[in-house]
Structures are given as C-alpha cells and as structure tokens.
Amino acid sequence: MNAPAIQYADVSKDYGKLRVLDGVNLSVESGEVLALVGHNGAGKTTLMKLLLGLIRPTDGSVRILGADPVGHDGAEAKRALGFLPETVAFQQAMTGLEVLNFYARLKRTDLNDNPALLEKVGLADAAKRRVKTYSKGMRQRLGLAQALLGDPRVMLLDEPTTGLDPALRRRFYQIVSDLKSAGVTVLLSSHALSELESRVDRIAILNQGKLMVTGSLDDLRTRASLPVRLRLKTREGQAGDIAARLDGVDMTQVNGQTVEFACMPQDKMILVRRVSELGVDVEDMEIELPTLDQLYGYYRDGGAPS
Amino acid sequence: MNTVFTIAGQEIRDGLRNRWILALTLVLAGFALSLTFVGSAPTGQVAASPLLITIVSLSSLTIFLLPLIGLMLSFDTVVGESERGTLLLLLAYPVSRWQVMTGKFLGHVGILAFATVVGYGAAGAVAAYRGEVDAAALQAFAAMVGSSVALGAAFLALGYIVSTTVRERATAAGIAIGIWLLFVLVYDMGLLGILVASGGEISQTAFHALLLANPADAYRLFNLAGFDNVALLSGTIGMMGEAKFPPSLLIAIQLGWVVVPLGIALALFQRKEV
Q1: Chain B residue with minimum CA distance to A157
Q2: Rounded distance, CA B180 to CA A128, Å?
Q3: Is B19 part of the contact surface with chain A (CB cutoff 8 Å)?
Q4: CA distances (Å), A296 to each of A208, A264, A301, in order?
C-alpha cells in the first residue's frame, strides 16, 4: 500500500482564542471513501480547507498525496484534487457551460470534455442557460461537475447532499461509487449518519474539533454495543404478570398491554427465546435496533450511554 | 500567465454580461459629450482649440468620476466573492493568490480603459470635428485619457486593500466612499485650510509635497498645468506658484499610486485566511 492519500498528523487549528480543531490524527488511504460526520461547527469544513491550503494548521501537519498543501508542490497536488464546497456559488450571469469552461481553463483540462461532463451530472439541457436560473439541485450538480474536472485522484465533498431530493441523492452516491471503483479517494462530510449506510468505507465522527472515533459503520455498531429495545404487547391486563415472569430483565416501561425492556445485542436471542416461552399471553413483539442517530449521539458524547 | 488572463477575461465577461461596461461607457460618454457641447458656450470664440477646452473640462470631471468608478469596481472584489462563496472555490483551484488579484486588476483596468477611451473618445471626436486639431492637442488629449485610466487604477488598488481587509461587503462600501471623499474633496479643502491658517507662510516645498501626495492632485497638475496651452485656460497656474513640475514626475507619482497600493493589497491577500 502506498502512502495515505490524505494525512492529518496531530492537527490543531485556532481562530483567535477559539480552537476549532484539537489534535486530529486521521489518514485516508488511497481509494478509500471516508465520511466526516459531525454537527455544524464540528470542524469538518476546516479539515477540508486545510487540505486545500486555504488555511494553515496552528499545530501539526497536513499532507495531501504526500505534499504539503501550502508548500511548493501544493499547487501541483491541487491539480489532482476536486472540491465541492458546502454552499456552492457561481457567477450568476454565466451559463453552466461557461462556468465549467472557466474552471477547466484554471485546471488546464480539455474544454471539449465539458459537455460530456454536464451530461454526466444531468445538466446537458441546461448547459446554455444562465446559472441565475438554476435550482439549488442544479447548482449542486454543476458544483459536482466542476469537482470532477480533470479526473481528480482525490475528491473533497463538503456536505454534498444537503438540499438534494432523494432521487438526486441516490444519483449522487452512484457517482461516488463510480469514483470509488475508479480508485479515487473520497473525503465527504455529512451531518447525518443515516444516509451513509453502505455507501462509505469508513466514518470519522467529530465533535467540537475533536476526532471522537473512526471505523466502518459495522465496526462502530459493534464497539458501541448500544442496547436493543424489545417491546411486547400482552393480553389485556397481563403486562404486570409478564414483567414479573421475565425476572432479571431491565424493564423500561410496564403498563396496560405494553412491556418494554432493553438488552445488550448479544443477549437479544436469549430474550427472544424466553419471550416465546411465555405463551399466548404475548400477542406481539417488536425489536428496535439502535438507530444511526443514537449511534452518532453515543460517539459524539465520547462513548457515554445516552 | 494564462491563469491571470483567464481570470481577467472572466472579469471582463462578467462586466459585459451584467451591463457594467455598457453603463460605464454610456455615463462617461454622456458626461463628456454634454461638457463638450455645453462647455464651449461660455468661452465663445477663443483662439484655443475646442479639443483643449474639452481636455480641461473632462479632466475636472475625471477627478470626481474615475476614482468613484474605480472604487465601485474594486471594493467588492475579495469580500464580495468571499461572501458569495465563489472565492473558496476559486482558491481551491491550482491558482496562486497573486494570479487571482493580478487577473482581477487587469480585468478591471481593461473595463476602465475601454469605458474611458470610448466615452471620452466620443467627446474628443466631436471636438475635433468642430475645430482644427493639431498634433499637440491630440497628444494632450491622449495623455489625459491615459492618465485618467491611471487615476482609476490607483483607486482600484486602494479598493482592493479595503476589500481584502474587511469582513463585510457593507463595511467595504462605506470605507470606499470615505476614501473617495477624502482624496477627492476633503484633501484639497484641507490643503486650502492649511494655506489660509498659516497665512501663506507654509513653505513652498512642503505645500508642493502635500499637493503631490494625492493621486487626484497629481492628475490635476499633470493635465491642467503640464501642457502650456491647457494651463493658460485653466488658471491653475496661480495656485502652483512659480514651480513647474516635470510631467515625468507626475506620471511617476500616478503610477506609484497604482503599484504601491496594489502591492499592499497583494501582500494582505496572500496572508488572508478564507
């Protein structure tokens, strides 16, 4: 394996007295898709700006494709980089194609490839229309098109799916997966874990400038071992009785027809078997797995049970 | 260098698209033409060439107008792009910051130059049509147009400093207006005040130095006093006393007011965190 495509070593960043990044260590391997997850202000955008050489770290070092973004070879590294900012804006009076041509000139790529690129993001029909008339989703797609200019080896996508409808969102992740199969390293940020399921290799959760955890989604689930909730519907008035028969279980709610309790994931099957032995008094059962939001909350708060 | 021209070209294209260039050219041509027509009435039949009279009136107009236009074009450059979010994307490309600012400067100067040459050129053509044009008058006219662009460029550069320093567009606009008032109106009044307060006792050298320190005054001196014929018409000779500044010095001052602020703006932009 080569050197990591992206590497943060002990990176801190202060804006005046405000510490926005605090000792971040993170590397993204070549060809990996990694998602930065965190609230607004958690430091996601700051991490991307560091890679682009727009700001310098207060402490620590940043490397992109082995180069220091603010050093001499930084400009060269930027040529192999695609970036989609969080709120993407263009010169309003230009047409989509003109905007793309402008950026292509700056990156010195072939302008003849641009119509095909617009086609790829579904803007072929709007290529000759002014950006002013574009919807939010269209601007976002134009933003994606400019990020794809010159077949970058590393893609930085800052909250790429904010404001996109579900169909566009799917299409967007299709493009990300195409990029991945082409061996492109992708660093994207999001404030929702839920849309990342099975779409990224690894997740890094940030909170207030600190990297809380990194790992695959499965990995994070296993390590958190958040409690599973089981909810039973009993026959009228049997709830108390059922609760008593499930001795030694951590009850969270018992009333009327409902018995609710939590258990560790590894104990789930044991409890399901015990419930099935309770017979006809249990009319129904629901199993509620921990949601991604709960998982996120768990790691964001430093691994404390929420 | 390609990158610089790409950015300059984008700036000019944007100016064409949002009708900025058209509006500026029309404003300058409108003022210039009306001055040419109206301005020649009170002078009646004088021996001076109509083109020379046009130079005098146009340069008085320029002192107010071009600094204002320069600042209007430039105050938005960095802070506006930063607010709209286009700056972040631009700097994410393999471009260096000096290329961005130089490109924008060249684009803006191009816009200014086009509007001035066409706008004033129209007035010059009318004046030339109505009277005899000799080579000296033509040269004076060309020098006036050129130094007008240089005056605008100086205020472009000052506007970039403002635009790079402040955080909000509105602040930049306010400061730009302040700069305009200071250099164009307040400065001369202050000089007059000093002259009166000191009872004319202020040393000639100090007064001249102060006069030359303002790009607008350097422009005025260059155009109204630099040429013998024009000087006779404008009556500024008295204010200047015996001294006659060499045109090369005045040109150097004008260019200095372009280069130095531009250098400062570049240095500030280089260090700015976006």
Answers
A1: B89
A2: 40
A3: no
A4: 14, 18, 9
Report the pLDDT averaged over residues A23-50: 93
pLDDT in tens, A162-190: 878 888 888 888 999 999 999 999 999 98
Question: For the stretch A254-276, what's the b/e string if a residue is b when 16 or more beta carbons lie within 10 angstroms of its beta carbon?
Answer: beeeebbbbbeeeeeeebeeebe
A49 touches chain B (CB under 8 A): yes
d(C-alpha A261, C-alpha A115), whole Å: 58
Residues from chain B contacting residue A108 (CB–CB below 8 Å): 2
Q: What domains are there in chain A, each with its CATH number? A: 6-222 (3.40.50.300), 227-289 (3.30.70)
Closest alpha carbon to B236 in B252, B249, B223, B251: B223
Query: To 5 degrees, how large is the angle CA B170–CA B97–CA B88?
Result: 55
Domain count, chain B: 1
Please check whether residue B86 touches A, CB under 8 A: yes
Which structural domain range is residue B109 located in?
2-271
The answer to whether A111 faces chain B, any CB pair under 8 Å, is no
Over residues A68-115, the pLDDT tens digits come to: 998 888 888 889 999 999 888 898 889 999 999 999 999 999 999 999
Q: What are phi and psi of A72, to 5 degrees?
A: -65, -40
Q: What is the CA radius of gyration of chain A?
A: 24
Complete DSSP assignment for B194-235: HHHHTTT-S-HHHHHHHHHTSHHHHHHIIIIISSHHHHHHH-
Q: Model confidence at A59, in pLDDT bands (50, 70, 90)?
A: very high
B89 at A interface, C-beta within 8 A = yes
- Shortest distance between the Cα of B227 and any Cα of chain A, in A, equals 44
Q: Are B14 and A94 in contact (CB < 8 Å)?
A: yes
Residue in A closest to B274 by C-alpha:
A54
CA-to-CA distance for B200 and A45, rounded, in angstroms? 62
B33-72 residue pLDDT tens: 888 777 655 555 555 667 777 888 888 889 999 999 999 9
- Provide the CB-side half-sphere exposure for A129 (13 A, CA): 13
Question: Taking CB atoms and an 8 Å cutoff, what residues of chain A touch B96?
Answer: 75
- Measured between beta carbons, the chain B residues lying within 8 angstroms of A89 are 84-86, 89
Measured at the CA of B191, the angle between CA B161 and CA B147, to 5 degrees, comes to: 55
How far does B98 lie from chain A, in Å, by closest CA? 13
